[in-house]
Specification:
Layout (H helix, E strand, L loop, with lengths): L1 E3 L10 H16 L4 E3 L32 H4 L5 E5 L4 E8 L2 E8 L5 H12 L5 E6 L15 H14 L5 E6 L9 E6 L2 E6 L12 E8 L7 E8 L9 E3 L6 E4 L26
Amino acid sequence: MVIHTGDIVNVANSPAQWSNANDAMMTLYNNGIPYCWDAGNHDQLNSTAQGGGGDPNGAWLGGYYPAFNVTLMQQEPYWVSSIFDGANTAVRFSFGSHQFMVINIEYDANQTVLNWMETLITANPTINVIVATHNFLNGDGGYGYTLVSASGEWAANFENILNNYPNVILTLNGHDVNDGGTAYNRKVGNREEIFFNRQEVDGKTGGAAARIYTFNMSNPAQPVVNVYTYQAYSNGAEGPQYLTDPLDQFSFSVNLSAYSPQTVNFTGGTDFLGEAATA
């Protein structure tokens, strides 16, 4: 499962950039590789599109391109749900008796999106959930982008929401470029929180890097997750390589739940927005 945590383009209203991003992501689609994404602040249409100010209540252009078109993606067996024309997505995969769901949340998502996320998590108490989002953990180990106070407030609220759900085992995000380094990870209960963003490194070619997470399932109830970072570009005399510093190559363990069907009762007036998350 490939997870894109947003800023698919740099300028939200640039057809050329969207076309380029579409061509890149269609490589996954055309080769049958499952993936998901969220809209970063640079992907959200707003009055400051050139600066990537972001507007989680606005639109985005991703849905006009096949790689990010939910009508097309709904045909894939791993697809679960989406909201706001694919600015937020959810997908699934499994290993033996363990089922996983990735919920991918756009930059500073509004309350409707957060309700959608919580409903998906609540409806699936024995599915192990990975929450990906654009803005969350930063390079100093705090929450949010410190130069934008609203960003920090949103991220702190997001942390409080996640603390209600023990089946969320992992968070992934990028966005931050001003606090500390290009990577950070911390343990919160059974949840590993991971920030990763190299977009400003090596003359802004650092974005051509990927995180690889492998689950060693020899002990399915408590697998060890090995984290690798691959730099896919050449940097002077150095060619493509794995980065081996402690923040880019490390391991952690998580407790997983084996899937079992559950009956979940929702309070009156709950608006369930997912199509395939019935427990």
